[in-house]
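hey team, just a heads up i'm posting the complex here instead of the shared drive bc the drive is being weird again. everything in one block, sequence lines first with there labels, then the predicted structure for the whole assembly after. its two chains so it's a bit long, scroll down
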Amino acid sequence: MLGDFMPILILMAVAGVICGAMVTLSWVLGPKKVTPYKQSPYECGVEPQGDARERFPIKFYLVAILFVLFDIEVVFLWSWLTVFKTGSLEFQVFSGAAVAVYMLLWIIGDAYVIKIGAIDWDEATSLAPEKLGLSPDAEAA
Amino acid sequence: MDVLGWLQRTSVDAPWLLAVIRVLLLVVPILTIVPGLIWWERRLLSWMQDRIGPNRTGTITIPDNFPLASLRGRKIRTFGLLQPIADGVKLFMKEDVTPSSIDRKIYFLAPAIALFPAFALGATLPQASTGFIPGTDILGPFHYLTPVANVDIGLLYVLAISSLGVYGVVLAGYASNNKYSLMGGLRASAQLISYELAMGVSLACVVLATASLRMSDMVVAQEQALWGFVPAVQNWFLFTPFGLVSAAIFLVCVVAETNRAPFDLPEAENELIAGYHTEYSSMKFAVFFMGEYAAMFVFSGVFAAVFLGGYNLMPFNWEYLAATFPAAAGFFKGMAAANYWLGPLGFVAKMAAGITFFIWLRATLPRLRYDQLMTLGWKVLLPLAVANFIVVGIWVICSNERVLGPVGGWVALLVAMGVLAILYMNLAATIKKGAKSMDKRTVKLSDPQAKRSIKLADPGPASEGGQA
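-- predicted structure starts here --
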């Protein structure tokens, strides 16, 4: 069993050594002249303001969760993919119908995600003041 | 020298030795071709932009005291091919500027993680035919020399390793403790996982049509008769209707996965300086760069193997032609032999074509906006890939001999594609109509301070009323 995968392990070891060497070599070879300005994070030359690890838009989290959901749905298909074509007609029709229902659920899920605007990154619509219950007009008044 | 006999004996006596040779046959070309690739990109972009590009480095003038008088003063040109190597040496010698506020371990690990999948990805790619030498029953030398590991989960392995690339980018963005880096890393993560979905489904279509995940089986499936009934031409998936759609989706996703223009938002220099590698200098910066190029190279190989007939030079079944036209049998048999022995060259040529396509894209298309990127990934490519997947399923059932047969299968496939296209257009029109009615709606809000309800609306006379 491992026999087939042994070359992959060798390749990974070689790749690991190359990557490690590339990252450490410049550390060893290059000069080191440390100054406080050089060590500060780059913010276009001005003094850095605060910490970078601040809050970030929740949208990224939402996309990650959606990815996990949809990707797991695809993962379930992989084992079926390899046997579908070579199976008997009865198996093809039965499993094809089952997968059709499964994909229908998938499509409904995708349509729902699009409808609620989960992947609506257009700030003109997703963050419009009207949608958030705010209005520049109301503040002015 | 009996190379074939030695290979046969070694495969029994010391399989690890052959494995090491195979690994070197994959890693050494990647390491040597990447500098050439960088040179090719710079030269090609220059030509497309009416510039000259790097053409000087490596030009050697033979000195006047050279023993052979006829060669003195002559110039040996390398067309600037040594430029990337000179850049690499320079980068190795540069100071490794390391900010003080970083997360040290992750900061050093991230470039290595970004480069690693680019090398590991090629493990299952067959660079040449793993079968018999044409006209004989002998397994050729390529059977022992390629791919690194012909495992039965080849395509799953490619998908799994390619998604590791996200980690390098995200960890680099996080560890740098720089706002630009963090934003670049976040953008990259959302982009990569969005396009990975469509990539997985588009490859699933091809797996459904070949019924195997082994990469060499995929190439063998493309050596069959075209559409099942044109035996002279090979069935490259690019020539089939569903394969064409899959190939287009896969290509777009690969461009997005490798962060290349027009999907280079994570490193958009006019908004994010350099994105996730803002705080990386010296060779660590170059490692990100190399990882991008090596990934481009290997993904071109995956595209060639899955859609472009792998190592076959031309889409013709020479053996069939030789049997059908005995008059020119000698020529066709010669072509079959050339097809076998020049297989690695054909594979590299297809990779080079893929890379040139990447560079051409960069010269042609402007960068996408982030919402356009997400819309393309989730609302266009993903539904298209799923629709294609369903079409392939219908085709497989209909082309069964007991249902419609191969020709009927293709008719069913085209009908299914047409029905889906009409459905999609109707749906798109409905959504557009719905959006218009949304634009016109007015929103009523209660303002607690004014203790009255204000009528708010988008442009028009209504908003003036709200102000008053």
